[in-house]
Amino acid sequence: MNTLTDLTISEALVKLKRREISPVELTQAYIESMESNKKYNAYITTAGEQALEKAKAAEAKYADGSNRKLEGIPLGIKDLFCTKDLRTTACSHILENFIPPYESTVTQNLLDDGALFLGKLNIRRTTTGRHKRLAFRQLFFQFFGFVAGRLHRSLRHFHNFKEAQ
Hints:
Layout: H1 9-17, H2 23-36, E1 43-46, H3 48-64, E2 74-78, H4 105-112, E3 116-121, H5 132-141, H6 150-164
Parallel strand pairs: 2-3
Antiparallel strand pairs: 1-3
Helix pairs in contact: 2-3, 5-6
């Protein structure tokens, strides 16, 4: 393994429990990776400072032995799930400034197990499916921009669509 971001969740948990790494180190490694890879447009909302605060709290829980199943594990959350006080848009301009006053069941379960959130991940607008006609339309209407790599596939579908006409 070259970096902390190469660890699986299971490997990271083992290292955290053995105190070989700290939640703050792990979270900081992911934040640095997010910052250096902005060109991929993977995160549309970041919560690095909040994640670091929660990582410090997780460190204390490991120190006193009260850590939970996912204590100190940094995660990116799909922008589909509502996260209290963190912008949730479903990658749609309609919800561009929506900050939910509540937590979704999915994210609440992760928080209850000690996970911490790095931010919200870019998704297909309102998570619509992969129907050919819809994929063609979304090529022009991706509100927050494409995740690098996805654009190439979308353009290939666009060219196939044009050839089929």
